[in-house]
Structure formats: C-alpha cells, structure tokens
Amino acid sequence: PLPIVAIIGRPNVGKSTLFNRLVGKKLALVDDQPGVTRDRREGDASLLGLEFRIIDTAGYEDEDAATLPGRMRQQTEAAVQEADVALFLVDARAGVTPLDEEIARWLRSTDRPIVLVANKAEGRAGETGVIEAMALGFGDPVQLSAEHGEGMGDLFEALLPHV
Ligand code: GDP
Ligand code: MG
C-alpha cells in the first residue's frame, strides 16, 4: 500500500489547494470564503516521482465557533494517527494565529512525524509569518506556495524520510 500523508491546519490556510496540486485533479473544492462546507477527501498523489495517498482534512466550516475546535481536533487527530507523516499548514501571510497555536499543542503529544509548512510564502508578504512559525515548536517551516507551485522541491525533501 501507498504511504499516507495527511494535510492538517485551520480553515483557509490552503490545504485543498495543496491537495489539488498533488493529486492533479480538481477533486477538492477550493473557495475564497471560509464557511463553505467541504468534506475530508483522499486521493493518490505524486510529487516529483514520489507516490503517496493524501488526506485533505476539512468539513468543519459549517460548525459554530463554540464547537469548531473540538470537531477540528477530532478530525485532525484521526488523520494524523492514520498517516505516516502529517503536513501542518499555516498561512505565512496571515501569520500564526491562536488556532494555529492550539493545533500545535494538540500535535505535541503525537508520535507521528509532523512537517511544518508555511504556505502562501510567495513574494515578501510571508516573511514575518515564516519567522512566527518557527516558534510553533516543529522546526523551520518548509516555505511553500501551493497556489503558484513554489517550494515543491523543498516539500519533497521534507517528506522523503517519512514515506
Ligand atoms: P483550506 O480551507 O485550508 O482548504 O484552504 P483553500 O485551499 O480552500 O484556500 C483558501 C484560500 O487561500 C483560497 O483563496 C486559495 O486560493 C488561497 N491560497 C491557497 N494557497 C495559496 C498560496 O500559495 N498563495 C496565496 N496567495 N493564496 C493561496
Ligand atoms: Mg479545504
């Protein structure tokens, strides 16, 4: 069976955009508005010749603010537990948010490998967010632009030891 890679992170960081790029088909809906209901999706992905199964976590956008963290936590932890490695995405342009920090706390107790990814890192608008991400406790982030396809070689190198 193929190794499993999970994409996790709060809504709107670019998880589905990365999923689409790696699967190469428009299987996951991408929308500018957080709040669109999107389910968890799986697909066969390929990255510079590396083949793996990929899980896009989502489907909690319709939850109200009071229950969102609990639902996100359940889905995030389930996907991470299934995975050989998890990609923890943050938004370099938005910087690290309290929800990112909460997810980082959930992940601290897992035995699964976590690769931190600062997405939306194209251009200079992401520089501060990349530096903030270093404080999350998962090392230096892979700088990526899922939308523009930048940083895919660095993502490959970060995944290689785990798949
Ligand atoms: P998800 O909720 O984490 O699945 O995020 P989406 O993949 O739906 O993306 C949310 C928004 O971020 C969309 O408007 C995307 O076009 C945008 N986005 C995704 N990746 C990038 C990127 O690399 N750079 C920029 N500037 N925007 C991105
Ligand atoms: Mg999504």
TrEMBL record:
GTPase that plays an essential role in the late steps of ribosome biogenesis. The chain holds residues 2 to 164 of 456 of the full protein. The lineage of its organism: Bacteria, Pseudomonadati, Pseudomonadota, Alphaproteobacteria, Sphingomonadales. Belongs to the TRAFAC class TrmE-Era-EngA-EngB-Septin-like GTPase superfamily. EngA (Der) GTPase family. GTP 1 binds at residues 9-16, 56-60, 119-122. Residues 3-163 form the EngA-type G domain. This is GTPase Der. It comes from the Bacteria. Associates with the 50S ribosomal subunit.
